[in-house]
Specification:
The structure is a single chain. It is elongated, with a radius of gyration of 34 Å. By secondary structure, it is mostly helical.
Length: 432
């Protein structure tokens, strides 16, 4: 263990201790007491023995979190990049919450208590629990990279008490799933007849595809003769900051492996896509050199995928004019699922059509829409064990099932003619 020595300077006394660095360098630590200085030196020496990067010992949380954001930045060449929307959320929480509070601290000096006090401060400031939890997840994931990159030996944001799940209160709020009824869905398609987004809305409500998947759909993935479309990718907006260069959108793999799927489409969708192709060819001829080369099915007048916000505004405007609920574009996906459920389709089929990774997701999301399931279970029990079933089996075999024989026995009477109780082994023991 390194030994500390006393230093007196300008009338002040403190203790310094030397820590040897890999490669022959050295580092000095100091404290008010000899014991504290030697303890700090031992901790630093242990870090170097564990292979921590000596060049990162002075790196601040602010600098490291920016390095982390740059590493996971989405682009075509970065297979480790997150979705653009996720990166935008991460960047917002890093710049607006983590850096202002913890940015000046050295990463290697950050403690679990620092994280606790930071999160408590955010909660006391009035942030919603979900927001505080998201901030914590961003910090924890960033510091996991710090561990992997040998900047720190452990993650102070990953303590067991920090990640333990609290028991959630029962959800008494109305269901977040909103969908159109069959009649409303018919009214919606009628309201969109002749609109430039008609084919998009028809395809959304008849396939259940996500908005990003539809806006990424290309003609090479549409087989009108076979009445099928194939979902291979999804479009993501990059959410650039003001003045930031780069593409406004990128194409990425769908949300889950199960999201890569081929869907059969009804005649109404085939007809809408036929008309969309004809309209698009006319737009392309009119645009001339302004048309940007591409093969997208749903486009602007210049051939680029439309902005989802622009489509949403048009969608809600037409819904209002048709006296329909103000929904999100994503709610057309919920409408597709609810219509299939109302028609009695099996949850497994619905899960595959929606591109869910498992049927559990489908049931967790839409299970409450399967009305009558509990009643059907009760009816099944009645069919198996009810009086009518018992009588039928009795007629067939000439004997009553065990359960029915017990029920058919006459109640036992005592000597006074009142109903008596069954004599058990314990009763006989007590009587003896």
């Amino acid at each position: 263990m390194p030994k500390a020595f006393k230093v007196t300077k300008d009338g002040k006394t403190y203790y310094r201790c030397q820590v040897p660095l890999p490669g022959g360098g050295r580092k000095w630590v100091q404290s008010k007491t000899k014991r504290e200085a030697e303890q700090r030196a031992a901790e630093e020496e242990q870090k170097f023995k564990m292979g921590l990067d000596p060049d990162a010992r002075t790196e601040t949380v602010a600098n490291f979190m920016r390095r982390f954001l740059d590493y996971i930045k989405p682009n075509d060449r970065n297979e480790y990049g997150v979705a653009p929307s996720t990166h935008a959320d991460y960047r917002y929480h890093v710049e607006h919450h983590i850096i202002p509070e913890l940015g000046d601290k050295r990463v290697q000096d950050l403690t679990t208590r620092d994280v606790d006090l930071f999160l408590r401060k955010k909660a006391d400031a009035g942030l919603a629990p979900a927001s505080v939890d998201y901030i914590h997840r961003v910090l924890r994931r960033g510091l996991n990279f710090a561990v992997d990159w040998r900047v720190i030996d452990r993650n102070p944001a990953s303590s067991r008490t920090r990640t333990a799940k609290q028991r959630k209160r029962a959800n008494t709020a109305p269901d977040k799933i909103r969908a159109l009824t069959p009649n409303q869905a018919q009214d919606l398609l009628t309201a969109f007849e002749g609109d430039k987004y008609e084919a998009l809305i028809v395809t959304a409500i008849t396939t259940g595809a996500r908005p990003g998947e539809l806006l990424a759909l290309q003609w090479g993935e549409v087989d009108l003769a076979a009445a099928k479309i194939t979902i291979k990718q999804a479009i993501h907006r990059t959410k650039r900051k003001r003045g930031e260069k780069g593409s406004a959108w990128v194409l990425r793999q769908p949300k889950t492996p199960g999201s890569r799927r081929t869907l059969s489409i009804p005649d109404i969708t085939v007809a809408a896509l036929h008309q969309q192709r004809q309209d698009q060819m006319a737009q392309r001829a009119t645009a001339g050199d302004r048309w940007i080369a591409g093969d997208f099915v749903f486009t602007t007048d210049a051939g680029t995928p439309p902005d989802v916000t622009t489509v949403l505004h048009r969608f809600q405007k037409i819904c209002t004019a048709a006296n329909l609920p103000q929904l999100r574009l994503y709610d057309l996906r919920h409408t597709h699922a609810s219509l299939l459920i109302a028609d009695g389709k099996h949850p497994k089929l619905i899960a595959e059509r929606l591109g869910h990774s498992s049927i559990k997701i489908t049931m967790d999301t839409y299970g409450h829409l399967f009305d009558g399931g509990d009643r059907e279970a009760s009816d099944a029990m009645e069919k198996t064990f009810g009086s009518e079933s018992i009588q039928n089996r009795s007629d067939a075999s000439g004997t009553l099932p065990i359960g029915s024989r017990r029920a058919s026995r006459s109640p036992r009477h005592d000597s006074e003619g009142s109903l008596g109780s069954r004599v058990t082994g314990a009763d006989r023991i007590r009587s003896n």
